[in-house]
Hints:
mainly alpha, FAD/NAD(P)-binding domain, two-stranded antiparallel sheet, 4 strands, 7% strand, polyamine oxidase activity, Putative polyamine oxidase 5, Flavin_monoamine_oxidase, Amino_oxidase, FAD/NAD-bd_sf
Amino acid sequence: MARSYTVIIIGSGVSGIAAATKLLKNKFNNFIILEAENRIGGRIQTLPFGDGHIELGAQWIHGEEGNVVYNMASDQNLVSDRRETMQQFMNSTFVTSSGCEIKSDRLREYIKVAYSVFDDSPKDDLERFMSLGELFHKRTENILIDSEELPLKQFINWCQHYQNSYNGSDNWFEASAINIDTYKTCPGYPAISWKSKGFSTIIDLLQVWKYTAPVN
């Protein structure tokens, strides 16, 4: 039997579920959520893997102040207390795809240069309309790296993978450099981990309301 709804929510990602939760909190349940995929969560997709889990989408909580995800999770004691510093990351061991450790004395220096490329806003209109990949190559073209000391191709490939994971892109030639200016961050630690289940925990928190106010 056909029926009508007062509100139609498109998509069951975190925004759609949050909208539904808001309606339920206000004792309104004459709505329907339309979702094209066979799962909920949108770009949040946590899957079990061995004794743990892997994230195919959102991973870290970026920032603390003014971050509704952090506020919800920390109130429930769901965020990790571990805070890795950039220095700890820089002291990590880097290996090639064949398993050989890269022992270059200048490796950390090169990594710092790679990070600094994206610290500064685009300098002019030319840079503003570049992709992140184009901006990286432009700003590093005069840096000399001994290919015997450091496998250059693999190093640049690592830089691209790092930026892709940070920006949520598949290819840094598809991510715009203008976002360096427009992306707003929340103050606080920039990469907070979850204690156990992963980012899908936020979906679970939002869905708690469905048990007390079921949708018609």
